[in-house]
Amino acid sequence: MFEINTVEEFKEKIVEGFVLVYFYTTWCGPCKMITQDIKELSKEIDDIKFIQVNADQFLDITKLCEVSTIPTLLFMKDGKNIEKKVGFTPKQEIQEFIEASKLASQMEAEEEVLEKDALN
């Protein structure tokens, strides 16, 4: 899992592919409970970039992503928000969230192709 240290790093990491963004703070109890699970998932799932953002340290990123509660998991594809999950989430549910988000992004991409075909 990659810890974001600058806004530029954040923008570089999210621009391409699947990304799970984990918003946390050092004082958040539920964050402490799920951090290890997210780190484990980042080692188990190869086709997704896992990044973490300290919400206190990067308020501009937090606002940009419309995060108001922590912990928050934000699933993105090619820089676009796909799904959001707020609050404590057990590891199995995080894994299910990731799979459902990937499916949602694929369905959205297929719909865009169908719409373009219909216009032609």
CATH superfamily: Glutaredoxin
Tell me the Rg in angstroms: 15 Å
Helix content: 40-55%
Number of helices: 4
InterPro entries: Thioredoxin-like_sf (IPR036249), Thioredoxin_CS (IPR017937), Thioredoxin_domain (IPR013766), Thioredoxin_H-type-like (IPR050620)
Pfam family, one: Thioredoxin
Domain Thioredoxin: 1-103
Protein name: Thioredoxin
Give a description of the structure.
The chain has 120 residues and is of the alpha/beta class. It has a single domain, classed as 3-Layer(aba) Sandwich (Glutaredoxin), CATH 3.40.30. The chain has four helices and five strands; from the N terminus they run E-H-E-H-E-H-E-E-H. Strands 1-3-2-4-5 form a five-stranded mixed β-sheet, sandwiched between helices. A hairpin with a 2-residue loop joins strand 4 and strand 5. The model has no long low-confidence stretch (mean pLDDT 92).
Outline of the structure:
The chain has 4 helices and 5 strands; from the N terminus they run βαβαβαββα. It is α/β, with parallel strands linked by helices.
Secondary-structure topology with pairs:
Blueprint: E1 2-3, H1 7-14, E2 18-24, H2 29-44, E3 48-54, H3 59-64, E4 72-77, E5 80-86, H4 91-119
Parallel strand pairs: 1-3, 2-3
Antiparallel strand pairs: 2-4, 4-5
